[in-house]
Design a protein that fits this description.
The protein is an all-alpha fold. Helices cover about 75% and strands about 0% of the residues. The chain has helices spanning about 5-10, 25-45, 55-60, 65, 70-90, 95-115, 120-140, 145, 150-160, 160-180, 185-205, 220-225, 225-245, 250-255, 265-285, 290-310, 310-325, 330-340, 345-375, 380-410, 415-425.
Length: about 425
């Protein structure tokens, strides 16, 4: 069996109703925007503790490494729940599923804001993980049902734009709010944003019934039979683990290595965010393998330098370069998986989402061990080693993948990948170049 056969047969995607003919275009885009807001809200919630580790730890009497469990726990749970919720949702209306998940996230953040101790915070973070994994995995295939066919690529980019935007803007904004009003205020604000998002989904998202859901056996079949999907999952693990080994502890790194006062961290993270948004747009229309190779190689150098080069100027410049590089990761990984399995995009996306979130947990855990066992600089140095491993993996697999794809009949261009998915009757998200 070829990889192309595996794409077509190993995971047969369920058919779902597309956007109704003659429906108002603005309603479709309003629904897309509501889903993107949901992604932004959830990823911001997952990563919010990154900028609040020290305040939470000081308030609740735990170390920076232990406080890092606030990132590890939801990442680990989200990784397992991405495929579980996708499969377990069965034939339930996707609008109902998304609304329940976003409501769960809002309740969890409110519980964290009111928590009397660290154990309650961790329990609330577990619920956040359930919401993140399920919502992200399901939302990936919705654009084709919300807008006309010619706009599906752009709409999918808008939906997934919530991921990097949350990573690079949500965390700095939460950090600033936490410094102004306390860490509990930051969690309460995300809970309020979740309520706003729930209202938007209820008002703007149409009914989204499905004919059938994905079966559990289809996911390992895709991973087993499609080499490109396997490579994408491995690269996701290495890049994202490397990122969060270092980024979870960016605050103590900037303090201990760069000598930057805590009062300036939120401003610097906002600069990191702006650079990340620029990186997302720069990467959006480019070949995902080449982009990820450049990103992982560049971040290897950046993380090694920020761990060893003292001074506020060097720390600031390296942090901005870090944001620029990582900003292109999420969209490039998503594009990789869509190209790898154009006829099984929903299943491939759930595998990527699972590994992405497991890697967040693994990175936060590894960074915590490095910080508590050695020192703050050990976290970015470990991240640099993982980024280097990612660059080597991409470099060694890209050439053989390019040779196989034309022979196996796997489209080598996003637009042709979309054509292949439509020919097969699959309704999958895809990224176009225009």
């Amino acid at each position: 069996m070829t990889d192309a056969d595996a794409d077509a047969d190993a995971v047969a995607p369920a058919r779902t109703a597309a956007v109704a003919p003659g429906s108002s275009p603005w309603k479709g885009w309003a629904a897309v925007s509501a889903v993107s807001l949901g992604i932004f809200c959830l990823i911001t919630s997952e990563l919010l503790p990154v900028g609040l580790l020290t305040p939470v730890g000081d308030s609740l009497g735990v170390s920076d490494g232990t406080a890092g469990l606030m990132v590890t726990v939801p990442g680990l749970i989200a990784g397992f729940c991405a495929p579980l919720v996708t499969v377990g949702a069965g034939r339930l209306d996707r609008r109902l599923v998304l609304c329940v998940l976003i409501a769960l996230m809002a309740v969890a953040n409110l519980a964290a804001a009111l928590a009397p101790g660290f154990a309650v915070v961790l329990a609330a973070r577990l619920l956040v993980g359930v919401s993140v994994g399920g919502f992200w995995a399901i939302a990936g295939g919705l654009a084709v049902r919300l807008v006309p066919e010619r706009h599906v690529g752009r709409a999918t980019a808008v939906v997934f734009g919530g991921v990097p935007t949350a990573s690079v803007l949500g965390v700095p904004a939460g950090t600033l709010l936490g410094e102004l009003g306390g860490w509990r205020t930051a969690f309460a604000a995300v809970a309020a944003l979740g309520l706003v998002t729930l209202i938007a989904l209820l008002l703007l998202l149409p009914a989204l019934p499905v004919d059938r859901g994905i079966r559990f056996g289809e996911l390992p079949a895709l991973l087993r039979d499609n080499r490109a999907v396997r490579a994408g999952v491995i690269v996701t693990f290495l890049v994202v683990t490397g990122q969060f080994t270092a980024y979870t502890f960016v605050r103590p790194i900037l303090r201990d290595v760069s000598g930057i006062d805590a009062e300036y961290v939120s401003t610097l993270l906002l600069g990191y965010g702006v650079a990340g948004v620029a990186g997302n747009f720069l990467a959006g229309a480019r070949d995902p393998r080449r982009t990820l190779l450049v990103v992982s190689a560049s971040l290897t150098a950046v993380l090694a330098l920020i761990a060893t080069l003292p001074g506020a100027f060097a720390g600031t410049a390296l942090l901005l370069a870090w944001g620029l590089g990582y900003g292109g990761v999420s969209v490039s990984l998503q594009s990789w998986m869509i190209r790898a399995a154009p006829r099984a995009a929903e299943a491939a996306s759930s595998l990527m989402v699972a590994m992405f979130n497991l890697a967040i947990a693994a990175g936060a855990f590894a960074g915590g061990l490095a910080v508590d066992g050695l020192s703050a600089p050990a976290a970015p140095l470990t991240g640099a080693a993982l980024m280097l491993a990612a660059a080597v993996t991409i470099g060694t697999t890209s050439a053989s993948a390019r040779r196989r794809e034309p022979a196996a009949g796997i489209p080598d261009h996003p637009r042709r990948a979309a054509e292949a998915s439509r020919t097969a009757g699959a309704e999958v998200p895809y990224k176009t170049d225009g």
